[in-house]
Structures are given as structure tokens and as C-alpha cells.
């Protein structure tokens, strides 16, 4: 995940850095001195020279000291000459245009790509900065924007479960999403995860639509030793989930994990059915499962399923190395947090989402 974006981003950073190759010398000579705009540098230099000359007049310095001072002066002016090499606005524009294309190709939403490039331009154009600083500024700007897009109020599943437990009510977590997104598999993984944390669970076989869907969940139920409530194929999904919640209340089970049929925005009936399931059962948490490999489609999926209500996202198939920017665009588009990453096909392959880890993965 993000492998290609990372590679391209580094290529773009190198390209912009190449416009300031000469400033490498400045870094070697005086790495600690922050680069400054030309005028500012000149003013500072002049003031310093004035002060030094006045000081010289006041005190008669020994000859040796004067020599070392002149060496230091020569070094300083060398630094000044090389760090005065400004970044050419046109060259920078070209490089940033390429960076923007790379971001777009990787499904980073156009508003975010534009914002990143505009900010980099503002911070670099016409400035005298070292190659090292160019790299830092580009990385910083990118990370800042990614962090902002992912920093949405988190969904604390465990807190919701605990609060409901205090009121002796089960927590209903319902899985929504496109056909084949990974709903059933990640539902089973979450069941395994919650059981590991000491919560009791029951599955609700709410996909009464697709042939073999009930059987698929039943296999997970048997393997994980988590009970399951099911009706027949073709029956009312809202009623199955309702029964599972009733069962959980009667047995003091902490969490109901409800599967639903995969559906697309093309299928109005199935979307209406989903809204009905939500209305009847009022889930505590609706989890939208989207494939991280689905590209920008997931933004559209997010918007459609938001009509039924989405509280959090599971990004499935994170282990399949593909374009990653769409995930950032999705959270920004629907304003809901990514809660877990699906990282494989085994029960253990569910990872709590960590912003900093994802950011470090990109750059
Ligand atoms: N590599 C990988 N495969 C996954 C992941 N999550 C699910 N899958 C696979 O994706 C395929 C579809 O998963 P399901 O859980 O059946 O998807 P679904 O959304 O329930 O599908 P429908 O019920 O048909 O809409 C299966 O082969 C899963 O093993 C994941 O995180 N990584
Ligand atoms: Mg399914």
C-alpha cells in the first residue's frame, strides 16, 4: 500500500531539489544556519559587517585574530553566494505540476493535491533554501495535509460497547458495503478480535440475498465458536437482525455483529432495504467496508452508503499493494474515521488504524 505513491513522491522531491543543487555546498559549509530570503540575508550581512567594523575601531585586535576573522568572513560570503541561488518559479511550477499528477494518479482527491502543491509553491518559490530544506518542506506539507484529512473524531467502539454493557444493552454493529468489499470476512475478524478482548458476540446472518452468504457466515460462526442467528434465504434482513438483538438481550451477549447483502448505488431497491434495516434496528455503529484497491470509486461508495448512515470505515485488502490516495479522499469526503485495516484473509488480519503509521508509510 502506498508503495507507488511513496516512490513517485520521492522522485518529485528530487526533481524540485535538483533546481537548487548548488546550495548543497551551503549545507556542507554551514548546515545549522537557516536559509533566508536574499534581501533579509543582505541586510543582516550589512548590519553585521557594520558592527564588526565599529568594533574593530574601538578595540585594536591582534593580527592573528584579524586573519581568522577574515577567513570566517570569506566562508560566510561563500555561504551567502551559494544560498542566494533562488528556486526558479518556472522550474518549480513544472516539478509541482508533475507532483500533482502523481498525487492524482494515486487517487488523492484533486482539492487535496492542489492544496498540497499550492502550499509547497508558496513556501519555496523565489526562496533561497538548501536541497535539504526543499525535501523537508515538501515532506512536511504533504504530511500536514494527509494528517488533517485523516484527523477526524475517532470512533471508540470499545467505549460504546462498555457504555451499553453498563445499561445491559447489546451493541449492534452492522456491516455495509459494495458487493465483495470484504464485509463478511471482516465481520468475522472483528468477532474474533472482540472475543479476544473478552466480549461475548453473536452473528446475525443479515445477507439473505446472495446464495451461500448464510453458509459463509455459518462457517465462521462454527470456527470461531460465536453463535449465529439466521432465517431462510429471501427472508427479511431487518427481521433477522432484530431477532439477533433480542437473542443477545435475553442471553446477556455484549455485541451483535450483523452482516448485510452487498449492494451498489445502481440498485435502488437494495439501498432502500438498507435504510429500512437501519430504521428498524437503529444500529449503534454502522461500519462501511471498502476495498482499498478500489480507487476513487470508494469515494462514491462512501457518499451513497452515507445516506443510510456510516459511523466508521474498515479499509479491506490493505495488504494488496495498490494506490492509496482514495482512502484519504474518502475520509475527507464523508467525514468519518477509518477504524480498522483489513490486512489479509485470516482472522488475525485486522489492524487498528493508526494515522502516524500510515503517514510514515507514505514518506
Ligand atoms: N487480501 C485480502 N482479502 C480480503 C480481505 N478482506 C476480505 N478479503 C477477501 O475478499 C473476498 C470477498 O470477501 P467477503 O467478505 O466475502 O466480501 P463481502 O463484502 O461479504 O461480499 P458480498 O457478501 O458478496 O457482498 C474474499 O475472498 C475474502 O477472503 C483483506 O483484508 N485482504
Ligand atoms: Mg458477504
3D architecture notes:
This protein has 363 residues and is an alpha/beta fold. It folds into 2 domains: 3-148, no CATH class; 157-354, P-loop containing nucleotide triphosphate hydrolases (Rossmann fold, 3-Layer(aba) Sandwich). The chain has 15 helices and 8 strands. It has an 8-stranded mixed beta sheet with strand order 3-2-4-1-5-6-7-8. The protein is elongated and about 75 Å long. Magnesium ion (MG) binds at residues 183-184, 207, 213, 259.
How would you summarize what this structure contains?
This protein is of the alpha/beta class and 363 residues long.
Low-confidence stretches: 22-49, 56-67
The Rg value, from CA coordinates, equals: 29 Å
Bin the helical content: 55-70%
Tell me the strand percentage band: 5-15%
User: What is the highest CATH level, the class of the largest domain?
Assistant: Alpha Beta
Gap from first CA to last CA: 12 Å
What's the name of the CATH homologous superfamily of the largest domain?
A: P-loop containing nucleotide triphosphate hydrolases
- Sheet of most strands: 8 strands, mixed
Mean pLDDT level: 80
Largest sheet: spatial strand order: 3-2-4-1-5-6-7-8
Total helical segments: 15
Strand element count: 8
* Overall outline: elongated
Secondary-structure element string: HHHHHHHHEHEHEHEHEHEHEEH
- Give the CATH topology of the largest domain: Rossmann fold
What characteristics describe this protein?
single chain; 363 residues; alpha/beta; Rossmann fold; 8-stranded mixed β-sheet; 10% strand; binds guanosine-5'-triphosphate; binds magnesium ion
